[in-house]
Each structure stands twice: as C-alpha cells, then as structure tokens.
Amino acid sequence: MSKNPLTAACVILSVISASALAGLCVFALKNDQLTNINTKLSHDKSSLSTSLSEAQAVISELRSKAETEAVTEPANENTVYIYDNGIDVIEYPEIEGALFNDYDMSLLETDEKKHKALFDQNGNKRSRFGIDVSSYQQNIDWQAVKADGVEFAMLRIGYRGYETGQLCEDKYFRRNLEGAKAADIDTGVYFFSQAITEEESAEEADYVISLLAETNAQLEMPVVFDWEFPTDEDPARTEGLSGDVQTACCRAFCDKIREAGYEPMYYSTINTAIFRYDMGVLSDIPLWLAEYKADTSFVYDYRMWQYSCSGVVDGIEGLVDLNILIES
User: Fold this and answer.
1) Which of 89-93, 98-102, 146-150 has the least mean pLDDT?
2) Of the four, 10, 143, 156, 312, which is 20 to 30 A from 248 by CA?
3) How many domains does the chain have?
C-alpha cells in the first residue's frame, strides 16, 4: 500500500530479568532491519535475559532509530499518517471531506506546571489555556484557578447512565457555573453521552438546553457532545454500537444545540475520530481532541486539545484535565 518503510513490520522486545519485568516496547522499523533484529534476539536471548541494563540499552537504541527514521510526510496526496506516541505509525487513507489543520507544533511552549501555549510564526499567542471539570473535582476555589492563569473552563453539565440510560445533572454543575462566572472565567459545557439512537442524542441535547435555560447560563464556549467508551469494569448499554450510529448521534445532538443558538463541538480521542466517527460528515462541527502527549501530530482540524488528564492547577485538590483552545 505504501512506499513507507516504517509500516512493514513491528518488533516487540520483552525482556524479563530475575527480579523485574523490563517492559514491552513496540517499534515500527525498516524492512531490512527486521531480519537482523530477529537474528540478534535469537542469538543473544540468554545474555539479554541475564542483564536488565543490557536490555534497556537495546531498547534505547531501537527507540532512537525509530524516532530518527520516522516519516513525517505523506507517501502520496491520498495518504496521511497518524503517530502514536511518536514511534508507531498508522497509515490511513485520507478521509473524504475532513478538514486539515495548519498548526505548527514546533511553536508550542510548556511551562513548569505543564500549562501550554501555541504561538504563530510572528510570536503571537494563538491559544488560550483552560481546564474541564466535573463532580470528580468536588469543591473548587475558582478565584485561585483564575489567578493561576486559567482562561476558560468546560463544565460537565450532565450525563446518561451506563446501564440505566437515565439522564442526570452533574451535582456540581451549578456550583461550578456560579464560581467560574464570579471569577470571570469563560465557560462552556459538555454532556457525557451514552446515546444509542439519534432520538436519544436529541433527547440529551434538549436536556442540556433546558438546564442552560433553567440556570440562565451565558456561555462563551461551546456545548460539547462527549461520547466515550466506558471502562472495562463497567457494563454498558452502548456495547456494540456502530461507528455510523455514533456519528449520527453526534450529528443529531450538535444540530439541536446549534438550532438553540449555541456553538456545538464534539469530543474524541484520535482512534475514535479516525476509526469510528466519519469526520467528513462532521466537518462543520469543531473537534475537541483528546491526546495525552507533549505535542500532537494529528493532521485533521481540531479547535481544542485536551493534552493531559493529570494536570495541577491552584484551587483544585488533586488532578485535573488540561486543555488549550486554538484560535485562528
């Protein structure tokens, strides 16, 4: 399918010492390296297994080679590359109708607290720093949050139950809305969806709109459709839902939100965006991308990037999600 040497093979190196598991590493390597590496692993198995430090040296060498030789340009105009952790490469045909971004991540800056900012070629800041919160953060000192440089906050307004399908308001939503507004922090909301039909996602949108009206919420940020897979431990009514239905649910929710006068947005990881949602069908709806990395090479257009789930912000006990909103 491609002339890209990185997509031909993956090598998994797993080394176990007498006292510890060294780990599992997967690398995309050149075709002509695969035979040599397999031979080396076969011949040197006994010596590698007796020395954790030697194994770590081999891993470091392979990582260095993979990163150095990573392809950064498409093989042809109809192919794009999505990078996973900067090493493995997923080759995928260009998505018809999907828009590309123009972000230069070499101009991304991060401070000592992992707060990020993106600049343009002229040194002008083109992003805003924000957080997203729910009842999991409990009581928040919003004045301290503001003083720590937070410019916007995405508040969970509610959710649909994994099993029951019941619509629920986040019990801290009203408190968070009042506190963020009092601290002069721009706000938006997200709804954690578990819709399995377009009718259910439209019902979720109506529920969100009613809560916004009831609280007289004045939003400066979008209203977000947040459909996620539940954790392995949780049984879910959404199990087996197709990507086409998930796309239709997102479309129905966002259309209702837009009709009500709010800006819609949808939240997604890279895998869900590429392999489940039809990004061409959703191209008029801004994407809130979730990828927990120092930077991202995601080529398609997104407006907001959730880059950490383990951030630290004054005024919040424990960890919080960190985001940047990128402005044109």
Assistant:
1) 89-93
2) 156
3) 2
d(CA 57, CA 173): 50
* Residues 26-56 pLDDT 10s: 333 344 444 454 555 455 444 444 455 555 5
- The CA distance from 56 to 189, in Å, is 45
pLDDT at 184 over 90: yes
Q: Would residue 14 count as lying in a domain? A: yes
115-119, 176-180, 227-231: least confidently modelled range = 227-231
Tell me whether residue 221 is in a domain: yes
Same domain, 228 and 253: yes
Task: Report how far apart, in Å, the C-alpha atoms of 291 and of each of 42, 57, 311 are.
Answer: 36, 28, 14
pLDDT of residue 49: 47
State pTM to two decimals.
0.74
How many Å apart are CA 203 and CA 191, to the nearest integer? 12
Residue 285 · residue 250 · CB < 8 Å: yes
What's the mean pLDDT in 20-24? Answer: 34
Residue 100 lies in a domain: no
* Paired tokens of 141: 């000192």
**DSSP 8-class letter at 96:** T
Tell me if 223 sits within 8 A of 208, measured CB to CB. yes
Domain membership of residue 98 (yes or no) is: no
Q: What's the Rg (C-alpha) of the chain?
A: 22
Look at residues 89, 175, 132 and name the one whose alpha carbon lies nearest to residue 265.
132
Q: What is the pLDDT of residue 102?
A: 92
Q: What whole-number distance in Å separates Cα of residue 17 and Cα of residue 24?
A: 13
Q: Which domain holds residue 65?
A: 5-93
